[in-house]
Design a protein that fits this description.
Layout lengths: L25 H9 L4 H11 L4 E2 L3 E2 L3 E6 L8 E7 L7 E10 L3 H19 L8 H10 L5 H9 L3 H32 L9 E2 L1 E7 L2 E7 L3 E7 L5 E5 L9 H9 L3 E5 L2 E8 L6 E3 L5 E2 L13 E6 L4 E7 L1 H4 L4 H9 L7 H16 L8 E7 L29 H6 L28 H5 L35 H10 L6
Antiparallel strand pairs: 1-4, 2-3, 3-17, 4-5, 5-6, 5-7, 6-14, 7-8, 8-15, 9-10, 9-16, 11-12, 12-13, 16-17
Protein name: protein-serine/threonine phosphatase
EC number: 3.1.3.16
InterPro entries: PP2C, PPM-type-like_dom_sf, PPM-type_phosphatase-like_dom
């Protein structure tokens, strides 16, 4: 969470739309951001929140639990969702976690939470359904085939045909994700009620249909699978890569688009994205919805998409914002969920563990917002399924926090931008060479969605109150040569 602009800066960022920054416009901007465009949109949102099987506040169902808690940086900018019977399919579940940043990050995150699943559903063609072929067989067997005939036809499907079918299913899912994410970002750009110029959100999303799991990820939120090893030990498998600016392929794309990537002196492990000629906004991720001040300079909203065929050894998936992963490893997260007293309390237990870890590991830092969704893959058992003696294996980090009731959530729309304190020392950045959002999909194909690429620990957190974007523009710090030049110009009286 954080923002792009200094609250005391009167100079707009390059390419900023009229009225998007500046002291004079602040009152008007507040009104604009806090008001509903129409009663129609309010009714639409209200109806959306009443859909059966759709959870977006702290709670649980038979197959999932979710929990979020506000940190110490201001408004809770995390959002989350679990949608059972997704797209009117009884075997489909949609899950997502969205971590907003910038002055209106909480509005962006909630807008994406509400709109992205609808767009994904509308782009989801019936050919995506992995069980379509078998359903056709079962329909035909009712009248013209006996069970032996049906089974013999199904058995004629070779392993190669099965693999081809799975590839077709994944391709259909991939196209749906790409279209939905592209349309979602375009909608945010045109949205008159939310200023997304220096505000945005991450999105880690998944669709589980039958035994197929498809993950689409933008930003640095993360998905981790809890599964069993050959010896029965519980292990963590990271399903997504944290899309940080210091990943080699991400940095190369940003530099090719004339953006800059470097860290500040007081947080050398946190790579940030900067405009070509201005030390702003300092975004700590390489992909995001919104943040249109950087969209011409290498930031993209193209999701990294991957798939997995689930097995009986796979037990649950955890989606969480970086408030979890900054302080807990993948193994620790999986263990906390597995050892929770019940499925319904697993997400809350994980958030509370992360908050304790923040206070222990970073006592002078502000605890980040946390949001967690736990999707349990075996819907038949009610309790979380692991013993304390389970061994764990993997490679990265976690944690998450609280949310309000529906009335309190509506009030968020009327809140002011979140304010954060930042220190101001900067590095001088390097310029470099140009894909855009249009050709970003082709460029991103070079970065393939291999969690193995992330064998290096890309997590960056040291120091006080790390934020995803910087509120105050970094200030110029004069060196010895600058001081001497200034003293030479001064008269004896001025000295």
């Amino acid at each position: 969470m954080g923002t792009c602009l200094s609250s005391d800066s009167r100079d707009p960022l390059p390419n900023s739309p009229p009225g998007s920054v500046g002291i004079k416009k602040k009152k008007n901007a507040r009104k604009k951001m806090g008001s509903r465009n129409s009663s129609f949109e309010y009714r639409r949102e209200d109806l959306l929140h009443r859909i059966p099987g759709r959870l977006f506040l702290n709670g649980s169902s038979d197959v999932a639990c979710l929990f979020t808690q506000q940190g110490k940086k201001g408004t809770n900018q995390d959002a989350m969702i679990v949608w059972e019977n997704f797209a009117s399919r009884s075997d489909a579940v949609f899950c997502g976690v969205f971590d907003g940043h910038g002055p209106y990050g909480h509005l962006v995150a909630k807008r994406v939470r509400d709109s992205l699943p609808l767009k994904l559903s509308s782009h989801w063609d019936t050919s995506v359904n992995g069980g379509e072929l078998l359903k056709e067989f079962s329909l035909n067997t009712n009248g013209s085939m006996n069970s032996e005939d049906a089974s013999s036809i199904v058995n004629t499907l070779s392993v190669e045909e099965e693999e081809t079918k799975n590839a077709e299913i994944f391709q259909a899912f991939k196209e749906s994700f790409l279209k939905a994410f592209r349309v979602m970002d375009r909608e945010l750009r045109l949205h008159t009620g939310i200023d997304c110029f220096c505000s945005g959100t991450t999105a880690v999303t998944l669709i589980k249909q039958g035994r197929n799991l498809i993950i689409g990820n933008v930003g640095d939120s993360r998905a981790v699978l809890g599964t069993r090893d050959n010896d029965g030990s519980l292990i963590a498998v990271q399903l997504t890569v944290d899309l940080k600016p210091n990943l080699p392929a991400e940095e190369a794309r940003i530099r090719k688009c004339k953006g800059r990537v470097f860290s500040l002196h007081d947080e050398p492990d946190v790579a940030r994205v900067w405009l070509p000629n201005t030390d702003a906004p300092g975004l700590a991720m390489a992909r995001a919805f919104g943040d249109f001040c950087l969209k011409d300079f290498g930031l993209i909203s193209v999701p990294e998409i991957s798939s997995r065929t689930l097995t009986e050894k796979d037990e649950f998936v955890v989606l969480a914002s970086d408030g979890i992963w900054d302080v807990l490893s993948n193994e620790e997260v999986v263990n906390v969920v597995a050892l929770a007293p019940s499925r319904s309390t697993a997400a809350r237990a994980l958030v509370e563990t992360a908050v304790r870890a923040w206070r222990s590991k970073y006592p002078i830092s502000k605890v980040d917002d946390c949001a967690v969704v736990c999707l349990f893959l075996d819907a038949n058992s009610n309790d979380v399924m692991s013993s304390a003696s389970s061994n764990t294996k993997s490679k990265e980090q976690p944690n998450s926090l609280d949310q309000a009731d529906s009335a309190a959530e509506k009030d968020l729309l009327f809140q002011q931008p979140t304010g954060l304190d930042r220190s101001g020392t900067v590095h001088s950045g390097k310029d470099n060479e140009t894909p855009t959002e249009e050709n970003a999909e082709d460029f991103s194909d070079q970065i393939d969605q291999n969690p193995s690429d992330s064998e290096i620990d890309w997590l960056a957190l040291e120091g006080v109150s790390r934020v995803n974007t910087l509120l105050n523009l970094p200030r110029f710090v004069p060196g010895d040569a600058d001081r001497k030049a200034l003293e030479a110009k001064q008269t004896p009286n001025e000295r």
